[in-house]
Design brief:
CATH class: Alpha Beta
Order of helices and strands: EEEHEHEEEHEHEHEHHEEEHHHE
Oligomer: single chain
Structural class: alpha/beta
CATH architecture: 3-Layer(aba) Sandwich
Helix content: 25-40%
């Protein structure tokens, strides 16, 4: 178990109810038979807090929940520690995750936007509750561009006050990231490509772009590459770790668990090589679980010795 005198906050403004459908195949334009289904209350920050809790690390999970289906969503969080729900207008969106041997597909519905009162209340709370050295993880997409623009000053201000802001949101542009100057960022390959206006990136290009983010004001760049592993970069060095070969059950939440690994390693004060190995171990262990379930600590211990990190810059 890891303990820390600092607080950790995860912030999810646009959570989701995840419907997971497991099928042997997906026939576009035809009928596919589901062999199993599951429903989970999720969202990137929620999944991150679950993974941290599995590692014995406490966090406050701030999540905005639409009143129209708040009962179902909050019931799905029953037993989860540290949940700080905030009710807002509208409904929690739904993600339909289809898992087949060929890969995972997702159909996402739109979420309910935050009101001005929601944002003012959040600002007051975080300004009063956070201290220098605390960690705030801003996770997931926001419902509207207006919501994003309203939240940017809050993230910039907290970062300027010495809060370790970590970004894991596809809603943010490269310009947004440069203004926030976060402690860390965790894009996947697709999100990294989008930040720099590219259709795709090779692993070698991902290393250079991860470092470029750090040159532009990011402290650490953790780039997850799915089955190809991950990259961790700073302005001074960069490492690559290959993912171990496993029988994947679901990749949903694997990136969130990889980010949990970075946070746990940050609290432990280990070097970048160990940090990356730990992140890949948590992400891989999460891929062995169904839906958005957190990684099993026993699986993390089993996988960690199989992962090595090589310096690539």
């Amino acid at each position: 178990m890891i303990s820390s005198p600092k607080k950790i906050f995860t912030l999810t403004t646009n959570p989701a109810i995840d419907l997971h459908i497991y099928a042997d195949s997906l026939k576009i334009g035809g009928v596919s038979t589901a062999r199993a289904t599951q429903r989970h209350s999720g969202g990137k920050g929620v999944n991150l807090s679950r993974a941290l809790d599995a590692m014995g690390v406490a966090s406050e999970c701030i999540v905005f929940v639409g009143r129209e289906n708040a009962g179902e969503y909050l019931a799905g969080l029953s037993g989860m520690k540290g949940v700080s729900e905030r009710l807002t207008d509208g409904a929690v969106r739904e993600n339909i995750n289809i898992h087949t041997p060929e890969g995972d597909s997702v159909i996402a519905t739109a979420g309910a936007p935050l009101t001005d009162a929601d944002i003012r209340s959040l600002e007051y709370y975080l300004y009063s509750q956070t201290r220098v050295g605390d960690i705030l993880c801003f996770c997931g997409r926001v419902a509207t561009e207006e919501n994003k623009n309203a939240l940017l000053p809050l993230l910039r201000e907290l970062s300027g006050r010495g809060v370790r802001v970590i970004l894991d949101s596809a809603s943010l542009t490269l310009s947004d990231v440069e203004k926030i100057k976060p402690y860390a960022i965790k894009p996947n390959a697709e999100e990294l490509s989008a930040l720099f206006g590219r259709d795709s990136v090779t692993r070698e290009e991902a290393v250079l772009l991860a470092r470029e983010l750090c040159v532009r004001g990011v402290g650490l760049s953790l780039v997850t590459l799915g089955a190809d592993g991950a990259i961790l970069a700073s302005r001074k060095e960069a490492y690559y770790a290959k993912a171990p070969k496993i029988e994947v059950s679901s990749t949903t939440g694997a990136g969130d668990s990889a980010l949990a690994g970075l946070i746990c390693a940050t609290l432990g004060g280990v070097n970048m090589s160990v940090t990356l190995r730990y992140s890949v171990a948590l992400g891989s262990a999460a891929s062995l679980t169904n839906g958005t379930l957190p990684p099993d600590p026993c699986e993390i211990k089993r996988l960690l010795p199989l992962i090595s990190a090589e310096r690539v810059w």
